[in-house]
Amino acid sequence: QVHIVESGGGLVRPGESLRLSCTASGSISVINVMGWHRQAPGKQREFVGNIGRSDQLVNIADSVKGRFIISRDNVKNTMYLQMYDLKPEDTAVYYCYGVQYDQTYWGPGTQVTVSS
Is the pLDDT at 3 greater than 80, yes or no? Predict the structure, then answer.
């Protein structure tokens, strides 16, 4: 079993930055794709971005492109979501996932609130 845990969420003001972390642990062989989704109140969960084992294999949603950066440390089995110039519409629960073979494992989520 693979366990996924997010951290780093919190309350920030518009224009500020925040970095989320996502760590995989447990029965890890090779975590291929790791990614982020988010869900705002009353809205469907949406794709934020994902990354392969190489930093060159990165996809970022158009809604956050230019403000969010995804990276990962394969040695630590950890992925990061660096968020800049946060906006109130970025307020959501951010969920991390990791894919190992044909199984996708999700974390419980971390709350990000952007408010003045």
Answer: yes
